[in-house]
Design goal:
Strand content: 5-15%
CATH topology of the largest domain: Endonuclease, Chain A
Number of domains: 2
Number of helices: 15
Number of strands: 7
Shape: elongated
Strand order of the largest sheet: 1-7-6-5-2-3-4
CATH class of the largest domain: Alpha Beta
CATH architecture of the largest domain: 2-Layer Sandwich
Structural class: alpha/beta
Length: 461
């Protein structure tokens, strides 16, 4: 990373901390799709955001200037950082009262960065990247095609990270214009102070848009090639994989936000994924099925639960409250079904609320007609929630297990309760399960040739 760049400063602030940043490599066409999706949601947002963008060179801004005219109409302030170029300041968008250009020095490390930072009372998002140097490309050298240029960084919806980054960007802008720095600081502080006073925009709709835009760019790759070709050339496959990886990342980031919003159970997704993996190993499931089960664990909170009541208590669990709150944005088929490679995961998550005796939802499936992974996920999510409920008690593992066993044969598969009991005995005897957050910026490894298969039916547990 270039010394003094915004990306480098943010990385330094988080290195060695509890919240390391998830960096990845992004092709230019992926970043265009991401930025367009995140920007265009401003047109539907309830807030009037402060938007700061870095375009490297003025010519790249000019390609987007018409779009930024529309964005400026729905923003409180738009700031563009780029090295100067012909007509950079003369474009009509640049003349708007709430659009300010910051003419970067060519030697400024930010001139090698691609940033989009959006912050309002209702919506936060950002892309923070730095172009790879000639040395980074190695022996293959820099790409000839513009769309194959690569950038190192990450993107996120996390409000705290966006606020932290916008402060770094405003500080950098202060080196060029101190009066602008003061004005932007005041705007950022006002937005921060107003957080919570307005209902936040539905992040599910943003994810829909991100996946849709990435899907369009992916389709363009195939349409651009000879229709008689059975597969894309290697360079095109690389671009396609980058787009696919970021679609998976969009869902993981959404799941991460849901976890962070739950102050009582902020590690639910990671812990459920870890416990599901351990159960899969106890049941001697094949590696690909365990992998799929683990991904379902990470994403299980994205499911619409159709208002199903908690299986063990009359009040809804935290997981169900989160899911029901998103019900309007995510129909029964699940938000995940917009991505073909996650069809099986969506199927698993959709049926996690089925009951062993057939009294559950959405389809009233019973016994082995319920996908095995759905049965495991249903049991593990309840067990993990009970562990959190009883964490201050003397024997949380035993009490959480007993709660689940009380519903054996009605809600849960009895044979899976036997496996869970073995797992609990191991944990009571000191077995340690390593809980790790997924490496969000490397989404491709989560998918394999089995990912798009239907979740298995009629598999004995």
């Amino acid at each position: 990373m270039l010394q003094g760049s915004i990306l480098q400063k943010l990385d330094t602030a988080h290195r060695g901390g509890k919240r390391p940043l998830n960096f990845g490599v992004y092709h230019k066409n992926t970043l265009i799709a991401l930025c367009h999706a995140l920007e265009d949601f401003i047109l539907e947002s309830e807030g009037k955001p402060l938007l700061i963008a870095a375009f490297q060179q003025g010519k790249w801004y000019l390609q987007e200037a018409e779009r930024y005219n529309d964005l400026a109409e729905h923003s409180s302030q738009v700031v563009i950082m780029a090295t100067g170029d012909t007509s950079f300041a003369e474009h009509p968008t640049s003349q708007r009262s709430n659009v300010t250009l910051v003419d970067l020095e060519p030697s400024d490390p930010v001139a090698q960065e691609w940033h989009l930072i959006i912050m309002s009372e209702t919506y936060t998002a950002m892309v923070l990247c730095q172009e790879l140097s000639a040395a980074d490309y190695g022996s293959k050298g820099q790409p000839q095609e513009d769309r194959e240029r690569k950038f190192y960084g990450f993107w996120t919806f996390e409000p705290e990270l966006v606020r932290e980054t916008i402060e770094l960007a405003i500080s950098h802008i202060g080196g060029y214009d101190q009066s602008l720095q003061k004005s932007l600081t005041e705007q950022a502080q006002q937005i921060t102070a107003a957080n919570g006073s307005k209902k936040r925009d539905d992040i599910g709709q943003v994810v829909y848009r991100v996946v849709d835009y990435l899907e369009r760019f992916e389709q363009d790759l195939y349409q651009a090639e000879d229709e008689q070709l059975q597969t894309l050339p290697l360079s095109e496959q690389d671009l396609d994989n980058n787009l696919l990886s970021n679609k998976v990342q969009a869902f993981l980031r959404m799941a991460q936000l849901i976890d962070q919003a739950d102050v009582t159970n902020p590690m639910a997704a990671a812990e459920v994924a870890t416990l599901c993996e351990a159960m899969g190993q106890l049941l001697d499931l094949p590696a690909w099925q365990i992998k799929r089960l683990r991904l379902a664990g990470w994403l299980h909170r994205l499911a619409p639960l159709q208002g199903v009541e908690d299986t063990l208590e009359p009040t809804k669990s935290t997981v169900q409250q989160q899911a029901v709150a998103q019900q309007e944005a995510m129909p029964k088929s699940s938000v995940l079904r917009v991505m073909p490679q996650l069809q099986a995961i969506a199927h698993i998550i959709t049926h996690q609320t089925e009951h062993w005796d057939g009294s559950g939802q959405p389809d009233g499936l019973a016994y082995d007609a319920i996908p095995l992974e759905s049965r495991i996920l249903a049991l593990i999510t309840t067990f993990q929630q009970r562990l959190k409920d009883y964490q201050s008690r003397e024997t949380p593992l035993a009490q959480a297990l007993n709660d689940c066993k009380a519903s054996a044969g009605t809600v849960f598969d009895p044979k899976l309760l036997e496996a869970l009991e073995l797992l609990v005995v191991g944990m009571q005897q000191g077995m340690s399960l390593q809980v790790n957050q997924p490496k969000i910026a490397a989404g491709m490894w989560l998918l394999d040739s089995y990912a798009a298969q239907e979740a298995e039916f009629n598999v004995s547990s």
